[in-house]
């Protein structure tokens, strides 16, 4: 099959071996996929992953291992990217995204979705309603990661919230936070990106003076360690700081300042797919405005060049569609 | 001034005395007002209130008592309906809607908004952005009461929620709950009302069989004591039951069942106006579909007849507009 592979260099292979499904798994024919910052980081050596890239996708189930999963055949699906063992204490405690035995598609010991086919456990699949076209369904994964903030934290309608970083994740998080009724401010460097969410009732600032009071909730998603300092300067005592950035290397911080001000720090990663699909179905999130370019899978290398470029927000890959 | 007064009977008075503002208060020229179930209940004797009815309104500030409040003059506003003392322990603890010395417009010792003018403390006012027309701004008060649920409770995007009662309040609450990403089911008796929220991704049922599992969150807003029994039969153990119904008389319930199943019962009344205004400004709540009739204030008695009628959802009064 055709696949976009990273093995130290990025290349399109035409004869990549098709995935073989194991017990409980489904083979999914990929229709469309999205390029994430993590994909870009992997091509710079992040996580030392070699294999088929890609974890944001929508596709159609073409094969299942178990007779009782036949109802999934020919259904259009998105999928939770962490393939958990389902048997360990963490899985039994209903925290499969933290399963110590998990593999992660396109990221950790599991071939990804920038290919004609990808395999995933059936329990990871969520059916996509007909009203959500492929190009929106691809956003289920990053949207789920944004929704995870609402799953972890009680954000009150009267809260003042701040998102730092106007990348793909920051823009999606602003759209999720605005649903709570809370005041939402986005701080970033790109007024043209800020304008996308300003028309949805989000305030955009390129800089903010620390003030008395400060923000109740600050979401750090700049992708670098500077964001944390900014976050600390703008959060109120006893406020909650959500960490979304993942980046290579160590971070040096004045941790005692967080103790003195009694800041609640919450790490946040993958989230629930079903609510993300519901929000797309209810048309409460506008993802169309974030799609800035699309390429065929055979032009995957050019797609990555575009995704690295400053002008693009989300670059998508057409696979079997 | 013209006013719709209840003094045992409902009538329009043309020469009702204008309100006199006291320290910290504003005089508001009412533009439009909405009839609530509480108004209907009052004409049946509820709370034994006599005076000008009405607490859902939008108007323009025409007079203020203090020099420092002059910036409010000529601003279009909605207003929190509880006039608190601002000095007691409850007010100092930032719970003014529970101030023991409070009066409440159109409900408790304070003339209401079905009149050409109404008075309120300036601290109760919230400016209405130009993008929200009068007929939507009038919904700020009941929408704030719906938003109060999100202020009190962490509803998770993965929760299964149920609203019992398809009246005005139930329909608004469904629209607020859908923003959380949670599954939302409305149980009611009127499929034509259910249809209004079904197209927004809310499931509508006229009856639900108790099942294993049950709902994580149940909101009871039927306006009668039968709703509580239904709620108990459909909530899961350790689930949260939000009580929105207020009605005359005592309720007999098997309270031990709530202990055995460890149900969390949360009473819920008035809510924050700023988030309600933000949600209207962001066009996340469709209130237009609920306005089923409007009358001039001089036809206020006919408006109440219409509001008592089965076919109407929200009846509005044009005052100075």
Question: Outline of chain A, from the CA principal axes?
Answer: globular
Q: Helical element count of chain A?
A: 10
CATH architecture of the largest domain in chain A: Alpha-Beta Complex
Low-confidence stretches of chain A: none
User: Which two protein chains have the largest interface (Cβ within 8 Å of the partner's Cβ), and how many residues from each?
Assistant: A-B, 26 and 26 residues
Strand content range of chain A: 25-35%
Computed structural class of chain A:
alpha/beta
Query: Whole-number radius of gyration of chain A?
Result: 20 Å
Q: How many structural units, i.e. domains of chain A?
A: 2
Q: Give the total of beta strands of chain A.
A: 18
In CATH, the topology of the largest domain in chain A is named Quinone Oxidoreductase, Chain A, domain 1
Biggest sheet overview of chain A: 7 strands, mixed
Mean pLDDT of chain A: 95
End-to-end distance of chain A, in Å?
15 Å
Order of helices and strands of chain A: EEEHEEEEHEEEHHEHEHEEHEHEHEHE
CATH class of the largest domain in chain A: Alpha Beta
Oligomer: homodimer
CATH 4th-level superfamily of the largest domain in chain A: Medium-chain alcohol dehydrogenases, catalytic domain
Which percent range fits the helix content of chain A? 10-25%
